[in-house]
Target: SCP domain-containing protein
Amino acid sequence: MKNIIRLTGYFVIVLFITILITALFFFAINFFQFSDLAENNFNKIINPTNNIPTTSINKLQPTNISLELDISPKPKTVKKTVPKENTDPWGVAKKIGDHTYTIKLGHDNAMGSPNEIYEALNNYRNQMNKGYLSWDEKLAQYAQKRADYFKSINSTDEHAELNDYLDNRNGFVELSFNKVGENSYYGTPLYGVHVIEWLFASSSEHNSNQLDNSWSHVGIGSNGFSVDIIFGGGKM
Model:
């Protein structure tokens, strides 16, 4: 019985040693195969093959560029326009349109107000033995609109807007007069007395208008260098 146990113990020891040797043998084989594979991969990294594409770079050839800069000034011809001297006589109205005149006058320090022009107009009419004109607010409001318009266009309009208002927009009825007339001016500043006695009196047409005995009322507007006088007769 003891011999059987001893044989069994020896057998187990021999079997264990055999298994251990076999395991070491396979481990050694795999280790050397792994080393060869790693070495090959390492060589591939250190010494790459010709599979990597290469790009050829052509050198750019320099180009010569020539720049010319002309800084010499070119002569310019400048024409100087000398305004013609106004040889028209002083204080004489010159007709340049159907109802438009020019006149050579001096100028005052300020433009006369509507009230100043109104007073100068009645004083002048009184000197000429003409009747007194009453102030009418509707005529004055319309005259002021006209004066404002003249200032905006820096001129008069040869009565164009007034004629359109009377003929096409019921102007006679709105102003409440059967007869309406106008003296208008745009130019330099003039006192009220000079507007009446220098300016309008120098033109026979305008002077006849401001002395017309058929007028009974008047309205006046002024703005800047513009003046408008609206006359009314035959009040409705």
Observations:
- Confidence is low (pLDDT under 50) at residues 34-39, 41-83.
- Helices lie at 2-46, 114-127, 137-153, 160-168, 171-175, 192-199, 204-210.
- The first strand starts at residue 93 and ends at 95.
- The beta strands are 93-95, 101-103, 134-135, 177-186, 217-223, 226-235.
